[in-house]
Each structure stands twice: as C-alpha cells, then as structure tokens.
Amino acid sequence: MCELLGMSANVPTDICFSFTGLMQRGGRTGPHRDGWGIAFYEGRGCRTFHDPRPSAESEVARFIHSYPLKSCIVVSHIRQATHGRVCLENTHPFTRELWGRHWCFAHNGKLPGVKLRPLRRFRPVGTTDSEHAFCWMLDRLADRFDRPPATRALRVEIARLARDLATLGTFNLLLSDARDLYCHCSTTLCWLTRRAPFGVAHLIDTDLAIDFKQETTPDDVVTIIATRPLTPGEAWHHMAPGELRIFRLGEAVESAGIRGYGAPDHAGGLP
Amino acid sequence: MCELLGMSANVPTDICFSFTGLMQRGGRTGPHRDGWGIAFYEGRGCRTFHDPRPSAESEVARFIHSYPLKSCIVVSHIRQATHGRVCLENTHPFTRELWGRHWCFAHNGKLPGVKLRPLRRFRPVGTTDSEHAFCWMLDRLADRFDRPPATRALRVEIARLARDLATLGTFNLLLSDARDLYCHCSTTLCWLTRRAPFGVAHLIDTDLAIDFKQETTPDDVVTIIATRPLTPGEAWHHMAPGELRIFRLGEAVESAGIRGYGAPDHAGGLP
To answer: ipTM score of the complex?
Structure first.
C-alpha cells in the first residue's frame, strides 16, 4: 500500500509541515520506499516533482522542504510498489491534460482487472494499474463531454467513475483538475480542516511542531487529506468506505444528490 | 526571443555544464528573464522543472545545478516573453502524452496566426502561441496515426508538420517523444557532438571549464543543441534556415528522403 497526502486551501499555502511528516514514512517511519511524487497547482499551471528513490533519502524531497512552494491544491504520494517496477514512469502522481486543464491523479490500492478496460485517447506511459485507471477515467470524461461541462455535471460524473473503479478493488484516490480536489475512500483516508483560531500542531512521525497562528491570517482555510492522521490531538475525520469528498478552496463542497458523496448512508437520488 | 538547449546522448549524461551557461542568459548575460524550464527523460519517464522567475536567480535552477540528473534526452528553454504573460502555465517546455509516450516541446520564435488553427484533442493550458502549435502538431499526429507509427513514418510526418508551422513565422524547435530529439531551425540553432578523444571546454557566459575526459568513457557520444554556441573553440555547426535535424542516442539520424532534413538544399523527394 502507499500513502496519500492532499491539500486544498483558499490562499496559496505551503505544505512543508505535512510533507515533512509524510516523507518520514518513505523509508523511515513507514515502509514506502519505492518512490514518491508531489504536484503543486499554481493557478492553471502545475509543477510536479517525482523521485523513484525513497522519500526519506531523497535530495528532491529535501529541496522541496527547504524551498516552500505555495499552492492552493497539492497532490502527493509515497509508494510501496505492488504493481509495476520501481521507476520514474511508475511514480505517482500521474498527470494529463484534458480540456486545457492539468489533471493530477494519485492512488493507493489495487484494482485487479482494470487493465482489461480498453483505452482510446489516454494511454499509460508506465505499467501500473493506477495509471491505467487514470487514463480510463479521463477517456470516459472525454467521451462524455466534448468540452468542459458545468461544474456539477463534472462532479457527478467523476463520482460515478470513482464508484465504478472501486468495485474492482481498493481505490483510495486523490484527483484534481486545478479547481476541485476529489478524495475517494475505499479503505482508509482522513481529512482535517484548519481555520481560525489556529493553534500549535505536532507531527506524529518526527519531532516537529508548528504554530499555525504565526503562519496564517484569520481568513485562511486549509484542508489536509491523508491516508493516516499526521498529527495527534487534531480533529481528523476518518472517511467511510465508499465515501467521496470534494474540496475547493479549503472547504468541503456541498453536493446534495451526488451518490456516494459524504458517508455512503447519505447516498442521494442519482442512479 | 528565447533560448533553447537540448541534449541527446548514448548514455545517461548530466547537462550541468551546458545548463550553467544557459542559465546565465536568463537575466545575467542575456535578457531572458521571463522564466525557464527543463525536461529530463529517464527511460520512458520524464521529469520537468519549471520556474516563472529568471533562471539566473532561480532556486530551482540552483538545485538542478547542485543535483546532477543524468539523462539521454534533455529539452530546456529560457524565456523572454513575446506572447502570453509570465506565469507557470506559459513556461516551456510543454509536455503531453500521446501513444503512451511523454512528448516535450520548446520553441523560440513567433507564429502569428497559429491560434486560428483549430484544435480537437490537445488543448493549451496557457496562452502562448507555442503551446497552441504543440497541441496542433500532436492533434495532427493523433489524427493521422491511431497507434504509434513506424519510426520513419513518424519522422517524415513531424518534418512535414514542422515545415508547415515554419511558414507562419519563426519556428526554432526542440521536440522529443522519449526516443528522438527533433531540432528545427528557422533563424538560429546550432549543434555540437562531443566524442572521444574528449578535451577541455570553457563556457562563454561564465568562468567555468570542464575536462570531459574526466567525466566520460571512450564510447560516450553526446550532442548539444543550442540557440547560440555555449563554448568557444569547439566545432559548433550552425543550422541553416529550414533545416531539420533528428538525433537519437547522440548521433544524427540518417534520413534520406525526409524533405527539409539537413540543409534545405538537400531536400529529398517527398512532396
């Protein structure tokens, strides 16, 4: 299994604190030694950094730690390979362009049989089942919508595709189109929103604390999504299997009627 | 105008020496202050680094300088904006996936009217004419070939598309599909192949010398492509307007019959 880390914020925010915790799990406090990657959106643009080496020993990770990039959406992943060899092209997050938007995808889990699903326009560069699933999702979106659909129609369709993929196996997902951050939980994913009044947080994985009051303004809203809580003593919400959450600008998006949104028992009326 | 830097090598090679020279032109010895980017292929994978800030002042550039990534194909670009504002999404090289390969594109010049050419599958994220031209090339390739064509058919088609775009304006180009490095000259582009016996080279733009004998084995073949020579006293070949060169594993590819290949007066028999 791998570990995911995502962020959605209403102002460009650096993710160094949470990233530091995650990176420890790549070979130090966790077994995820098979590479890592991170994508930072800056407006419509997107920067990605990948390294097939363990994050706890990575020069690129040290650079990112020392050079805080600020972003409103971050998608990150550390890998413990289950499918596909350890190499750059098998390192999440994967990116593609659709409708003139950069899409980023990171996945934790296995999707047996996903490679039997035919692809047309988007093709994997590497050999992971995750990248195949990503290409399949974008193929379906491109087939269904010639041009960017209305926000709500897109959210409903992505929820449907995520539910469909989750029937194959384990599909803990972070996905973004530079606007929304989609989070789907099959087995384990949790989130935490920080807003005023901000306090002090400590990392579980290493001896580091931060006083967010010193780093923020009262209007900042920052949501962190992670496979496992990164800090003790904060109100992490554990997502339920089958749950989808969508965040924009740090806030959970209302989505009455999107089936599978929120806890599965809140399932709405869509077929 | 911008400056281009490319490399094609038969063994993973670091481009730090040439990159150091190029980066000086981004705000120090040259006027190209509007960002820079570099793509390194590693097998089928591709890492890109972009920074909308001047390369001579860039933390990311300093990191790359201190952490030599080795690659067989590199595409790099420093920008002096002529079209499109200075931001991450307007920073070359641009990347897209086609047929399960990462494509990289960097361009120096202007292509008035290129945005009138309709696009279908590939769409620009930013607002440069360069990214539009790249999307148009990939659209044409995807239309023409459902699946990856034979190497020669692909080279002929890319030569044709490059000639077509060059009719619109200035089209100095570096393009790669992870296998070949395509170099098209409209106004200025030059190349240099280093092979045994290796010697000492000095940069024009800063006080740095390197003894390639210490850094190479006798079988290494490394071609550098640049807008202007980076070193004095080496045998840089200045390409002619309309000339296309294709490099693979450091060597120029034979291409009898590809029109526009080599100097224009070598134009072959294709329509």
So the answer is: 0.90
